[in-house]
Design a protein that fits this description.
Blueprint lengths: L2 H14 L5 H16 L5 H10 L5 H17 L2 H19 L7 H18 L2 H14 L4 H12 L4 H17 L5 H16 L3 H14 L6 H13 L3
Length: 233
């Protein structure tokens, strides 16, 4: 976590070892990018350093993309967006090595790209990316739920209709009374509300309450009740 110290160590090592193995220098420069990126207000510097990188092994790019993905998941909203932009730069560089990637590595790249697109707010491209991932990874619950969330957040009735179908599928595959099961119930009610069918939205909530009166706990119950209020119950 001491990224400033990491930066200094790598910078000094690179300066004092000009004749070191190219692969070592390449690895050091990759992690120098991460060390700079993880410090406040230095993402622009990290992006500039990244642009200068060359001769990087695909596995190193993958490692950097994963590290940035994990950092973005824990960062503030604004920092997460900037880290995601840096991730997309890394993914672009990985595209130059696509023929060298194994199927598993290619899937990792696709996952990182889709998540980064969603974080930067490019919802159209993110939906396209997650649609493909949902098809390729039918048993990945996180991918399926993320795709369904993007559909539900869309602006067209067709998006909401597709979201409804996807969340029904997720409900069927989720353990009853689990977090994702409640999320699927809530999303279906939300989809019906958006489609102008409050009657069906209220029916889903009523049936869920019969099965589990607490509606998944205080936070989730509040969301269900908000739909009821908007639908005039």
């Amino acid at each position: 976590g001491d990224y400033g110290r990491v930066e200094k160590l790598l910078a000094v090592a690179l300066d004092r070892a000009p004749d070191a193995e190219p692969s070592w220098r390449s690895t050091a420069r990759v992690w120098l990018v991460l060390a700079v990126a993880m410090q406040p207000n230095r993402l622009a510097e990290a992006a500039a350093l990244l642009e200068k990188l060359s001769g990087v092994d695909p596995e190193e790019w993958l490692g950097l993309s994963r590290a940035l993905h994990e950092a973005a998941a824990e960062a503030s909203p604004d920092a997460a967006v900037e880290l995601a932009r840096l991730q997309l730069q890394v993914v672009d560089r990985l595209g130059d090595h696509s023929e060298k990637l194994s199927p598993a590595q290619a899937t990792q790249v696709a996952l990182v790209r889709a998540a980064a697109l969603a974080r930067v707010g490019d919802s159209d491209l993110a939906r396209v990316a997650y649609a493909q991932l949902a098809e390729d990874l039918p048993h990945d619950g996180h991918v399926q739920a993320t795709y369904a969330e993007l559909l539900l957040a869309g602006e067209k009735p067709d998006d909401w209709q597709q979201a409804l179908l996807k969340w029904r599928e997720i409900e069927r595959r989720s353990p009853p009374n689990g977090t994702r099961w409640y999320a699927a119930k809530l999303a279906q009610a939300t989809a019906y509300e958006k489609l102008g069918n409050c009657r069906q939205a209220l029916r889903i909530i009523a049936l869920t309450r019969v099965l589990h009166n607490d509606l998944g706990g205080p936070a989730m119950k509040k969301k269900f009740e908000a739909i009821e209020q908007r639908c005039g119950r």
